[in-house]
Amino acid sequence: MIVLENKDYYKAIEPLSYVSINTLFAEAVIEQRIPGKIYVDSVQEPSTFYVAHPYGMSLLFGNSDNEQFNRDLYEYINNQESNIRKSEWLQVDPAGTWADKIDSMTTQLNEQQIIMKNTRVNFSFNLETYHQMKEQLRHHDHEIIQMTKDMFLSQTGGVIPRYFWRDVDQFLTVGMGYSLVCEGEIASTAFSAFRNEHQLEIGIETAEAHYGKGYALSVCSALIEYCLDHQLEPVWACRLDNESSYKLAQRLGFEPTLNIPYYRLECRGSIDSN
Description:
This protein is of the alpha+beta class. The chain has helices at 13-17, 24-30, 67-77, 98-109, 127-135, 149-154, 168-174, 215-229, 243-251, and strands at residues 2-3, 37-40, 48-53, 57-62, 88-92, 115-125, 143-146, 177-182, 185-195, 199-206, 233-235, 237-239, 254-265. The strands form two sheets. An eight-stranded mixed beta sheet has the order 1-2-3-4-5-13-6-12. A five-stranded mixed beta sheet has the order 7-8-9-10-11. It starts with a strand and ends in a 9-residue tail after the last strand. The model is unreliable at 269-274 (pLDDT under 50).
């Protein structure tokens, strides 16, 4: 696995376009909207790509038959050189044989619990279902406001805007978020985790004290309205075992379309909670 220099990131753009799953986070790295890393099999003519996003997500795609790359990949996953400093969620292109190869590595490393296999779900947005939900949407007394600089910088939680954007200025210029404020505190926020010219992927964070109050549905609806007003396709993806996100997506009009192999890579000797 060779680290690709930033000036050569463009070499991954066309190969990524052939991956028929949600790849917005990898696109953000390749287009250098956020710092990350790209590992390849060759600098001159790369055909295998491993794109790592700083939040802890990665995507593996391209040629799966390069034996040297696959040996390096095994060592990477085994974290022999401490490349993985926290949990990393690896998504593989379901086309081809990558899933089989990672499954083989999973078997070899199973006793060390280095790899744990999950499933990631891609959804498509059904506008009619969304409108039906919105007609019955419960209205709260609490205010929903567009995210400000102070809110961006102060919000806490596991899925928050500053983990997905280079800085607050970039978010305020390109991104978008809405928060429901309850008694002066941010109760729930829906925001653009990734965005390109045609799509916006939704991130959602609700404070534990406000679970079950319908706040997430309301702030996500506000962000979806923004998408519709700006001719953007709302995008949703989550782990299959993330029951709350899965159910919320369906209530908002998102329909599951594809299940993808998803691997949690652990930092050797520790279990990260992210």
